[in-house]
Amino acid sequence: MRNAMIGSLIATLLAGTAAALPAHPQAEKQALDLAKQAIALRSVRGPGNKTPEVAALYKSALVAGGFKDSDVTITPVDDTAYLIATWPGSDPSLKPIVISGHMDVVEANPKDWTRDPFTPIVENGYLFGRGATDMKLDGTLAIASLIELKREGYKPKRTIVIEFSGDEETTMKTSGLIASKLSNAELVLNIDGGGGALDEKTGKPLYFTWSGAEKAYADFELTVTNPGGHSSEPRADNAIDQLAAGLVRIGEYHFKPELNDLTRQELAQESKYEAPEIGAAMRAFVANPEDKQAIATLTANPATVGRIGTTCVATMINGGHALNALPQRATANINCRIFPGHPFPQVMAELQRVAAEPAIQFKDVTEGSVPTPPSPLRPDLVQAIETSIHTVYPGVPVFPSQSSGASDSMWFRHVGVPSYGASPVFIKESEDFSHGLNERTPISNIPPAITYYLSLIPALSK
């Protein structure tokens, strides 16, 4: 036990926290062991998808940890599956809280990686492997924490549900099914969102954000068709030329910058940790969303342009049918990340106006995405998160954020359930390789994350 406590304290110090954390050696070991087993299962959509095996692994751990077998269900869907586990509370009149995650990962080609992406390894204080960051370690930290609460004899008043979707990285079919089943929930803690930033030089925690909204994902197909003809007889109505002209106009266009309650706080707080020019522009934009210089600075920076409004960009193009023929058809895809509050038809109409080319036909071809409003700034939720973070990272700033990408929170908000990204994992911006090569996460996150969950989950379920 003494060695476990020393090991836990060392990990805590490596994480840069000033708090001496209580030891939870069984939970800490289980979280890492389960994450390594899950990473070894290639849970990628398509042939050989092992997401159902990840679900079986998680169910086995939950049942062994005290959940009734009948309270942990795995539902097959196409080549994947989803899991819902219920810990009944003592007061059935209270709506449940939901802990939400996903089991699938983005494809990874072993030839491109330094280490095999589906062979987990701990090296130099990092867990390497596809899903180490997004989000198998996050998932097993929550599972191990619930089991630890059972081990300690905790009895929730409010029912606790933990669920994992099986296709969050692709179609989100299971995500929508889960949200429909759990549409009676009080709120959702999405452990695939939010998180903390580490200082690039010292490795100490800079700040923690919880996510209360996300931009909507949308795809619009642009098509130009005409009869074509022989390439030796060019005409003004060339399908490729017409499409290209519209794409250039769209590429040069910027949607009106805007703020909401979440991004106003996020930009104001995060400006303190940015390069001076970017930080000053953030503060100026918060003070005046029509500040032209601030907008120009933030728009020119790829890391901030998506934070101040809707963005749309051409991602695919195809045209023509023969080298010696005028094109009969040319198509392109415009991918948009839409600021909350704007319906898809409104954005598509704005793109049509900007393209200014009557020959281009626009079509919404979005799959698996719907626009959703921000979740409310609930004082009870905000207080619980702040208290739990400060239990392990005293004094670290905590503020809300808005995600630029879609997550399972979208489907809960779509059915009227507020959802909040609340992962306790801290990472350097330069070391966030989610969806990329050589994905890894510091294992020093494990002890403080367990302690965080042992504070947060009871605070919301007592």
From TrEMBL:
Keywords from the named record:
Hydrolase, Metal-binding, Protease, Signal, Zinc
- GO terms under biological process: proteolysis
| Record lineage | Bacteria, Pseudomonadati, Pseudomonadota, Alphaproteobacteria, Sphingomonadales
InterPro entries cross-referenced by the UniProt entry: Bact_exopeptidase_dim_dom, Pept_M20A, Peptidase_M20, Peptidase_M20_dimer
Leader peptide range in chain numbering: 1-20
The entry's protein name is: M20/M25/M40 family metallo-hydrolase
Name the Gene Ontology molecular function terms of this record: metal ion binding; peptidase activity
Domain Peptidase M20 dimerisation: start-end pairs: 214-359
Read off the Gene3D superfamilies from this record. Answer: 1.10.150.900, 3.30.70.360, Zn peptidases (3.40.630.10)
| Family, similarity comment | Belongs to the peptidase M20A family.
